[in-house]
Amino acid sequence: MTTLARWVRYGLFALSLIFLPLAALAAPFAAMVMDARTGEVLYSQNADTRLHPASLTKMMTLYLTFDAIERGQVSLDSVVTVTAHAASQPPSRLGLRAGQKIQLRYLIRAAAVKSANDAAAAIGDYLGGDEAGFATKMNRMAKALGMKNTTFRNANGLTREGHMSTARDMTLLGRHLIYDFPQYYNLFSRRTADAGIAKVSSTNRRFLDAYDGADGIKTGYTVPAGFNLVASAQRGNKRIIATVFGGTSTAQRNAKVAELLDLGFARAPGKTTLDKPAPPALMADATGVAGPEVTGAEDDTDEGDAPVAAAKTLRLAAAPPASPRPMARPGTAAHDSEAVELALAKALEPAAPATAPVAAAVAEVTDVVAQAASPRPAAAPRETVPVAAAGFVQAATPQPETLAMNDFSEDTPAEGDAPDPREPIFVQTSTPQPETLEMAGHKNPTDNTVILAALTPPAPAPQQEREVVARASSSGGRNWGVNVGKFPSQYAAERSLLKTALMESDTLGDALRKVARGKTGFEANFVGMTKAGAELACARLTARASDCTVIGP
After folding, report:
1. Which residues face 110 on adjacent strands?
2. Which residues are catalytic?
3. Nearest CA to 265 among 233, 230, 229, 243?
4. Cα–Cα distance, 456 to 252 (Å, whole number)
5. pTM exceeds 0.85, yes or no
6. How far is the C-alpha of 310 from the C-alpha of 320, rounded, in Å?
7. Among positive and negative, which fits the CA dihedral 54, 60, 66, 68?
């Protein structure tokens, strides 16, 4: 062997000694592809191998938070006092300080969009009392959702002994987020968000902008975990979820997820029956998701709020398992629009005032439940809803990136992404998704009443004189209105008007909902209002992060 050959051999051996330990540190790879509509697994690799989930953990933290909000145990406006434990979490961070008070809605945005570890820990301490208490709730919910190989130890996913999950379990959790809480799912497609003390940028915006139809869900990175991602995308009537554990870089992980989503769209059938996952069969007390508001802690209740315990009692006594279609009035067609309007108007009637005794409010709910149990005529067979109608529409053209990030525990965006101060806080797709709204069934923060959703269709009333109620006309000074956006279809515009009316019934309850067709879309307007009423309604909608414009004569 020549001297040169001997040196080459020794050089290769030395290089192997250098790079072998680095290879040994690489996180194991796992993947799963699922048809979100049916739960059918289209591809898997090491899908049941227990690995470090990193910030994918925050999906469960947010799931439990949405569950607590929907049960009425907390609200988006609940004030959270940041614990020293939460404030001490390493990056990625929102920048919380011990003792600081902040609304729950801002912590949710920071955890979902920026993947802020301090925000997620603050949520966990608030809902669970401390880290261990919240981990118990996380594990209980994971078991109820069918996540068989997952064990949580904290709310943010920082590496902890025993804190493990699998590609299959995280895919199941992502599917439940989509279908169990569609009203909040749009959080995961936001490129930026207002987190109260700062504007934050999405850790997943590179993938959202690069892949056609992508609308979520969550990234994750630690050294032991590698680069993780649970992604969802919709094209036509197909929705696919792909999960990757152990990517070697942001770019490599995103490319692999794109490849897996393409595979899923190619293998998924074009037509199939939508089979949503069954919600976990847990009562509120079984999940144990009870924040300080349930115990009546004054520090975490906005000034002037009605006692949260009363709201909780009402919701648990009467919350329906489903929202049935309103029945038609006698002598009308099953889909008569006036019948639907009257049923929705009935649902918006406020419950007993906050100053009335709690017993009276409970008695009212009992009466409603008793009426619901009375016999009613059989309803017409439910129509088969096309799968596409249940989708989440995403613009085909990616939106521009807006804000740069500067922490190192999550994905780092490209340089030169300084925000435009003229841009709104929330960047939406060309087909707007519903904002995170407090819908019927939530506490009204203005007059401390509880708006009860319609429990069952109203029973046919006996033949009697009817009182005719007319909406306010657009004359006599009522020639002002509020525009809440432009939409690609009349259905989308009407849907937005209905949701807005449910959210802001105090100022828009008497306004006429009108869709005006234009050259570029369908304008959603509330008309027949006074100037003062229109300005007040738009101001309140703006405070709820909902776009609107006052329109005059």
Report:
1. none
2. 55, 58, 115
3. 233
4. 51
5. no
6. 18
7. negative
Rounded to whole angstroms, the Cα distance separating 326 from 198 reads: 43
User: Helices marked H in 348-477 — which ranges?
Assistant: 358-373
Q: How far is CA 229 from CA 66, 162, 395, in A?
A: 21, 20, 21
Q: What are phi and psi of 243, to 5 degrees?
A: -125, 135
- Least Cα distance to 267 among 44, 30, 34, 48 occurs for 34
Mean pLDDT value of segment 476-484:
81
Instruction: Please tell me the distance from the alpha carbon of residue 106 to that of residue 172, in angstroms, as a whole number.
Output: 26
DSSP letter for each residue of 10-55: HHHHHHHHHHHHHHHHSPPPEEEEEETTTTEEEEEESTT--B--GG
Residue 234 amino acid letter: Q
Tokens of 237: 């009537």
Torsion of the alpha carbons at 84, 86, 90 and 93, rounded to the nearest 10: -120
d(CA 245, CA 253): 9
How far lies 438's CA from each of 122, 189, 211, 268, 284, in Å? 22, 19, 31, 35, 19
- Does the pLDDT value for residue 37 go beyond 50? yes
Query: CA torsion sign, 519 to 525 to 530 to 534?
Result: negative
How far apart (Å, rounded) are the C-alpha atoms in residues 232 and 216?
A: 5
Beta-strand pair 522-529/480-487: antiparallel
Residue 323 tokens read as 């929202």
Question: CA-CA distance, 118 to 98, in Å (whole number)?
Answer: 10
DSSP secondary structure letter of residue 112: I
Residues 6+ apart with CB under 8 A from 440: 347, 348, 451, 452, 453, 502
Q: Are 351 and 450 in contact (CB under 8 A)?
A: yes
- As given in the structure block, the two tokens for residue 62 are 């947010």
**In angstroms, rounded to a whole number, what is the distance separating the alpha carbons of residues 186 and 487?**
17
The token pair that represents 409 in the structure block: 């525990």
**Count of CB atoms within 10 A of residue 133's CB?**
14
Q: Which residue's entry shows tokens 């040994």?
A: 24
Q: How remote is the C-alpha of 246 from its chain's centroid? A: 26
Return d(Cα 204, Cα 254) in angstroms, integer: 9
Hey, is 217 helix, strand or coil? strand
- Alpha-carbon distance of 513 to 331, in angstroms, equals 25
| Most confident of the following: 119-123, 315-319, 320-324 | 119-123
3-state secondary structure 45-61: ECCCCCECCHHHHHHHH
**Largest interatomic CA distance in the chain:** 111
Q: Which residues contact 295 (CB under 8 A, 6 or more apart)?
A: none
Instruction: Read off the pLDDT of residues 206-259 as tens digits, 9 standing for 90 and up.
Output: 999 999 999 999 999 999 999 999 999 999 999 999 999 999 999 999 999 999
Question: Contact 231/261 with Cβ under 8 angstroms?
Answer: yes
Nearest CA among 190, 215, 209 for reference residue 201 = 190
